[in-house]
Amino acid sequence: MKYFIINQVQQHSSQMPSAESTDKYLVVVAVIAVLFIGIVGYLVSLDLKLKKIENQS
Amino acid sequence: MKSIQWWKLAGVALVLFALIGGLLLPVPQLPILAQSIRNLYYHVPMWFGMLSLLIASSVYAVKVLMSKDLINDVYSESFARVALLYGTIGIATGMIWAKNTWGAYWTNDPKLNSAAIGMLMYAAYFVLRGSIEDEEKKARISATYNLFCLPMFIVLIFVLPRLTASLHPGNGGNPGFNSYDLDSRLRMVFYPAVIGWILIGFWIANIQIRLKKIELKKEQEL
Amino acid sequence: MSVVVKLIKKELLLEWRQRYALNGILLQVLSSVFVVYLAIKHMNNPTWNGVFWVVMLFISINAIAKSFIGEGRGKNLYYHMLVQPQQLLLAKFIYNAILNLILAVLCLLAFTVLLGNPIQSVGLYILVTILGCMGFASTFTMLSAISSKAGNSNLLMPVLSLPIIIPLLLIIIKASMRSMDGLDETLIYKDLGILLLFNILILSLAYILFPSIWKE
């Protein structure tokens, strides 16, 4: 994956990104994914709670 | 997990794919936009989501006027509320992109102004709702205003920007998201992102509607 | 149709009897133009045009707001029994359009006297103004009806009207700017066509939606 990103950027710009900056990029991607999964987890928990209440009545 | 409906999970899967793939998959190189074209996957689906939620809201507004059932008003309001949320996120993502590409958070561009005015129109919808006490009257009057707003909103978003020159990608000869620019690499992430965000929007609205229904039921029991 | 004409006559008669309201609006036109004159000494053509339409916008919001907001319960009940909602809407719309046009002419005169008149092709400018006033009248009549049903109507009226009128206002300002500069006429005809279509859109929307506001 790392190789792939470096390749991508290298093709189109003269600047060669360091391995360090690629790492940072991957961290950003991971953080965004975790945030989204967190939001989805909240939605799922709400949905399940509502389902429980709906079934009770 | 099987008690969560399939379309909600499909929405999550599509958005997750678009979030990660949007940052890692290759994109075509265009002048000015460069790598910021990736915002196509985050900014544009918000407007598609907002528009489809607003259309859903107005469909239920028609139902309010056709039948006396107040539950339609709950639907109409929740869809409009999530649409406003999507619009806010759309403006925020657009502003961050504009700061990096144009050098300013806000430019006097017809597309930006139209979006802001559209948001004001729907914010006024909630002010109107807040100022009517009687539930039946509130449902009827706000449904009428909703239906009066939607054509204006569509004129604002689709017709007006085309009448004036715009810097926005896809306008005035700027490279952008026109059909010929949307090559297969962009489409592969863009379409899932649009569908996924629309589904998530409907999910959020769905949760709100069910919550309101339970509240209504509680009130009736008391 | 004869009902509509009678309703318009009644509106005019009522307005004539309570002349203080009419005088108030006329005075408002003059004083707001004077405020503009004092605030902005030198203005170029786009500013002249923009300020003219902003002044017109606020004057017509104020003038048309009272077409439904001021009406008492008894009067509404009276209308309910006697006329179809669409007839009432049409009557109010036509009356407001006439009122708006009179205000526009007055505003134009005041602007000419105080700030000079940079308009190149007057005929086209007046045509744009007529279409613009009709658009203002139909939108604000509808919104006045909506806000009259809510509490706090006087505050609600501008909150609802200002965002909704902006698309129309932008088209009007563009079209009137073109006729002001006396540019190629074919360009203006396109703008006039758009304005006309927009007017038809608003009016037909109002015509369809008005009965659902009106019924109690």
Helix/strand layout:
The complex is a heterotrimer of chains A (57), B (222) and C (216).
Chain A: H1 2-12, H2 19-56
Chain B: H1 6-24, H2 44-66, H3 71-101, H4 110-130, H5 135-163, H6 184-221
Helix pairs in contact in B: 1-6, 2-3, 2-5, 2-6, 3-4, 3-6, 4-5
Chain C: H1 2-17, H2 19-39, H3 45-69, H4 73-82, H5 85-115, H6 122-148, H7 153-181, H8 185-214
Helix pairs in contact in C: 1-5, 2-3, 2-5, 3-5, 3-6, 3-7, 5-6, 5-8, 6-7, 6-8, 7-8
If you had to describe this structure to a student in words, what would you say it looks like?
- Chain A is built from two helices and no strands.
- Chain A has 57 residues and is an all-alpha fold.
- Chain A is rod-shaped, with a radius of gyration of 20 Å.
- Helix content of chain B is 73%, strand content 0%.
- In chain B, helix 1 packs antiparallel against helix 6, helix 3 runs antiparallel to helix 6 and helix 4 runs antiparallel to helix 5.
- Chain C is an all-alpha fold and 216 residues long.
- Chain C has one domain.
- Chain C has eight helices and no strands.
- Chain C is globular, with a radius of gyration of 18 Å.
- The mean pLDDT of chain C is 87.
- Chains in contact: A-B, B-C.
- The interface between B and C is medium-sized, with 28 and 27 residues.
Number of domains as seen in the coordinates of chain A: 1
**Class based on secondary structure composition and strand pairing of chain A:** mainly alpha
- The total domain count of chain B is 1
**What's the oligomerization state?**
heterotrimer
How would you sum up the global shape of chain B?
globular
Helix content class of chain A: over 70%
The chain pair with the largest interface is: B-C, 28 and 27 residues
- As residue ranges, the low-confidence spans of chain B are none
- Helix fraction of chain B by DSSP (H/I, runs of at least 4): over 70%
Average pLDDT reading of chain B: 83
Shape of chain A: rod-shaped
- How far apart lie the N and C ends of chain A? 51 Å
Number of helices of chain A: 2
Number of helices of chain B: 6
In the CATH hierarchy, the architecture of chain B is Up-down Bundle
Q: Could you tell me the number of beta strands of chain B?
A: 0
Q: How much of the sequence of chain A is in beta strands?
A: under 5%
The first-to-last residue Cα distance of chain B is 33 Å
Relative strand content of chain B: under 5%
Largest sheet of chain B: none
Radius of gyration of chain A: 20 Å
